Amino acid sequence: DARVTQTPRHKVTEMGQEVTMRCQPILGHNTVFWYRQTMMQGLELLAYFRNRAPLDDSGMPKDRFSAEMPDATLATLKIQPSEPRDSAVYFCASGLVGYTDTQYFGPGTRLTVL
Amino acid sequence: AQKVTQAQTEISVVEKEDVTLDCVYETRDTTYYLFWYKQPPSGELVFLIRRNSFDEQNEISGRYSWNFQKSTSSFNFTITASQVVDSAVYFCALSETIQGAQKLVFGQGTRLTINP
Description:
The structure holds two protein chains of two kinds. Chain A is mainly beta. In chain A, 0% of the residues lie in helices and 54% in strands.
């Protein structure tokens, strides 16, 4: 049963600290997406990759957020420095362009910045 | 710009009742996909269905059915004989293709509570 995995599932940190969230996409998928979910804004797309190359990160606050795909099995989302307004659930999703074009979501990382 | 509206913020019904979740979308694209996702209390987002804009056939999967009406830009979701396990937040989403990748635009979600 292929699934997207995300670590950590929960993270509590203090303002100013660096936060790194990791995602393992479904093996063979060639697109990876990062979303953020908050009560106020709902689900927002932060960034996405195709074949490990970043295609669009216009949804991310550039000064503190960065997203990378060091290899096909790992995507990372970093926040440095973190702020209380970054508290949210961060979802990673993966898909296979040209085949099903459906995005499958991981369980999410619940981030709390104090 | 792409937009998805789920006008029903919350719905509460008694078990075994049928319930319909509404979804209205806006797009200028001629080719697009529509999706429904379920978010149970555990928090994960579970894919339910994808519909191509060229395929207006209704779909049924067990107790779930979907009605796609291109003329009214709607993609409604009906649960027949609802069960407590159906309690969740349901999201309708619309895709747009940017550089070969499907970007999803989500509605605000409908929180469905099924009472025993």
